[in-house]
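Table 4 source record.
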Amino acid sequence: MVEVAQLTGQGGRPYNEDTVGISQENNRTCVVVCDGVGSSGGGEIASRAAVESIIEQFLNNRMNNTDEMEEAIYLADKEVKKKQDDSTHMKTTVVCLVIDEYENARWAHVGDSRLYRFKNGELIYQTVDHSVSQMAVFMNEITTAQIRFHEDRNKILRALGSDSHEPEIMDDVHLEAEKGFHAFLLCTDGFWEYVYEAEMSKILKQSHTPEEWLSGMKLILDSRAPENCDNFSAAAVFVAS
């Protein structure tokens, strides 16, 4: 059984440019989290267009393998670009997860919205940001944990709606074969910036539902984020195999 919960908020900004989409049909689950790039204008339009496009592909019984998932991301990029005009070059990050009827999980991301994968409460995987700060990690200038405090943390290198929109795709992970309790967290930078990985894991071990997990992490975000903090969004997924 797959359980899903979500939260999103505008933080200290005038409006929310994040969009979260969840669809469950025929024992299949699709979760999408997008963060509109505010500096380009129309971020909320871009994020909504991307989520709607990906969910549509899922409902059309696509995204059943990594090739179809990659195609869904490219189609979402086209939908974002259709919304652009001479004055508004809107863009958005994206991270999406599909769990099929056989408990195969596959995911993709563009930009610095992340997917975290946990098994039996322990973090075992996280996506790698497409950002200037992540490049600093690759050059051994900072550690991964220091991305949160890096001066160029908000500068992303890939986004839907831009020339560089190639997704990173994770091939199928067969959850049923890996017996245990699996959890996924998909979130924007406005969320993971203030909730650290060790805290995600600690609260997960204390939570019985994805809603409870998100609520516990939201308390940390509220206590740590400044008044002018960014929009924040997250989706939590529980899978018991």
